[in-house]
């Protein structure tokens, strides 16, 4: 396990699938698991796109705020609709 900074929100993430990650690296995280290592340029591009789309805050919401936002969203037609990847920077645990 490690701590990952999602644009200012730090969460615990399983790093087992990407054992070569080091402090300062960027990674794609899905449902609490780091899936692959990416470069800083790709991470910055993706975070900028998420922010422009207005989905960055929704992706990073926690607890009651996450439930409230989910309740306001229209129902999805399936699991692949609006599937976003999170690009983050890793920190030591």
Describe the structure.
By secondary structure, this protein is an alpha+beta fold. It has a single domain (2-91), classed as SH3 type barrels (Roll), CATH 2.30.30.140. Helix content is 31%, strand content 29%. The protein is built from three helices and five strands; from the N terminus they run E-E-E-E-H-H-H-E. A five-stranded antiparallel sheet has the order 2-1-5-3-4, with helices on one face. A hairpin with a 2-residue loop joins strand 3 (26-30) and strand 4 (33-38). The longest helix is centred in the middle third of the chain and has 14 residues, at 40-53. The termini are close together. The model has no long low-confidence stretch (mean pLDDT 76).
Task: Offer a quick outline of the entry.
With 93 residues, this protein is α+β, with helices and mostly antiparallel strands. The protein contains 3 helices and 5 strands, in the order ββββαααβ.
Topology:
Elements: E1 2-6, E2 9-13, E3 26-30, E4 33-38, H1 40-53, H2 56-60, H3 63-72, E5 86-91
Antiparallel strand pairs: 1-2, 1-5, 3-4, 3-5
């Amino acid at each position: 396990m490690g701590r990952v900074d999602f644009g200012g929100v730090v969460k615990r993430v399983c790093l087992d699938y990407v054992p070569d990650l080091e402090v300062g690296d960027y990674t794609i995280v899905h449902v609490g698991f780091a899936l692959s290592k990416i470069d800083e340029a790709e991470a910055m591009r993706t975070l900028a796109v998420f922010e422009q789309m207005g989905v960055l805050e929704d992706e990073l919401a926690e607890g009651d705020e996450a439930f409230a936002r989910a309740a306001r969203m229209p129902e999805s037609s399936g699991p692949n609709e609006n599937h976003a990847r999170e690009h983050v920077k890793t920190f030591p645990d």
